[in-house]
Amino acid sequence: MRVIAKSVAPAKAGPEVATPVAARGPMRPAQLTAPRERLSPALLARTFRTFDGLALGLALIVGLGGATPWLHREAGAVAPAMLCALSAWWALKAFGAYHFYAREPWDIHLARVVAAVAAGLGVGAAAAELLGVSAREVEREAVTAAASLFATHLGALIYLRRARKQGRLTPNIVVVGATPNASRLIEQALADGSVNVLGIFDDRAERAPRAIHGVPVLGDVAALMDHKITPYVDRVVITVAPAAEQRVRELIQRLRILPNAVTLFVDADGAAARISALARMSGQTLDGDALNAEDRRAVSKRVQDLIIASLALLLGWPVLLLIGLLVRLDSPGPVLFRQRRHGFNNEIITVWKFRTMRVETCDPCAAQQVRPDDDRVTRLGRFLRATSLDELPQLINVLRGEMSMVGPRPHAVGMKTGNEESRLLVAEYAWRHRMRPGITGWAQINGSRGPVDTPESVRRRVELDVEYIERQSFWLDLYIILMTVPRLLGDKGAVR
Fold first, then answer.
1. Using an 8 Å Cβ cutoff, are 318 and 328 in contact?
2. Tens digits of per-residue pLDDT, 217-271?
3. Sheet of strand 235-238: strand arrangement
4. Any idea where the domains of the chain sit in the sequence?
5. Which of 16-25, 55-64, 410-419, 475-484 has the lowest mean pLDDT?
């Protein structure tokens, strides 16, 4: 759990109430987007800077009249133009041209671009003067550079505006506690647009207003646990005054079972923290800083997924086609079986498999897990399950970004262990949803493969999944992928 400190004015008697109450709230985007679909701001900033570098390079070539005249031009004439382009590229970052603030007017942002070009022109002109070259030698480069940068940044602004409208850039948070701190947080979020506050939850319903600054109170903390909005929430923010230590401890204990990150918003004098810190903690501040460790892991994991899944489909499509044909010949019914399962952050995703059961006995909710010699499973289905070939269509889920090659195996929504829902047997069950589910995983190569039909097996699966999430790395994923086939072939006792 993270703590945000904020210096604020003395608290009012209570939070401001907005009436009438809007059902959706003023900050809820038209389209709710799951956190897995959020764009990486640091990666975007790097991409935009790369495009700017390419644009400046092209402007340099065009401004100098093409590549060939360079051979016949004095070196002193080329150097100022190159310094002009390099200085402009450096100045773009120095002047904050990669801080695409949500509420910054476009003309202010484009003014930063003009300032960067002007700085580059000044350096180029100074270099030309020192080298005894006419300053006019860099004028054409400056004009083409300005045009190129205007084009790239205008395109970036249009793209980011669309991304924000789709909810792919601005993080979503919910607030626990209808308090003066919540009022201040929401007021600042409305002002700077760095986060979307989707709703408020408070156990003291009799004291809570219907809304704060138009953001609706959606229920108590128990309602948050299973609320339909929770899979779209990046972070849960506790705004209860830290002086109420017992209440804060109780809330942290109750919220710890969620897959969502939890933050305590503290009201402390002398700590100059802005609401944008919440956006940074959610990884959504768009700036030109280097990718942090979490960003690097996420990017490398996604690249690994795309490469491996694409190669597997490219090389294995004849196998998939053959299995599909055999499934159709083995028993009547569709080739593929669809099942709703829990994905990242408790998002409900549709997972694809080759059908291994007779159509009339298929169990989309996994109310009854597979038993030894289960008569619901077809002849071919036994072989496909034993070899895990029935999971191959999930490569499509990987390409869609709903799953990963390696991660906790996705369980069916409402899956039962005995007569009890599996998720209710272990308090930390939802922690396994803090990462995209995988086709294979740490649990699967360590003996926890197949059904979890006892509370002990559920607990063991969760322990292994949480251990993987804490240890995840590119090399661990590669090790798990390489070990999957030999461990699978050596696991004769698993029931699937």
1. no
2. 998 888 898 888 999 998 899 888 777 888 888 888 888 888 888 888 765 443 3
3. 2-6, 261-267, 235-238, 172-176, 196-201, 215-219, 211-212
4. 2-38+168-281, 43-165, 294-490
5. 16-25
What is the band of 76 on the pLDDT scale with cuts at 50, 70, 90? low
Distance between first and last Cα of the chain: 37
How many Å apart are CA 308 and CA 406, to the nearest integer? Answer: 11
- Indicate if the pLDDT at residue 406 is higher than 90: yes
Question: Do 117 and 142 contact (CB within 8 A), yes or no?
Answer: yes
Coil/strand/helix, residue 416: strand
Cα 40 to Cα 163: distance, rounded to the nearest angstrom: 12
How many CA atoms does the CB half-sphere of 63 hold within 13 Å? 27
Any idea what DSSP says for residue 200? Answer: E
Token reading at 352 = 């694809």
Q: How many CB atoms lie within 10 A of CB 310?
A: 13
Position 31, amino acid: Q
Record: fold of 2-38+168-281: Rossmann fold (3.40.50)
Nearest of 477, 491, 495, 381 to residue 438 by alpha carbon: 477
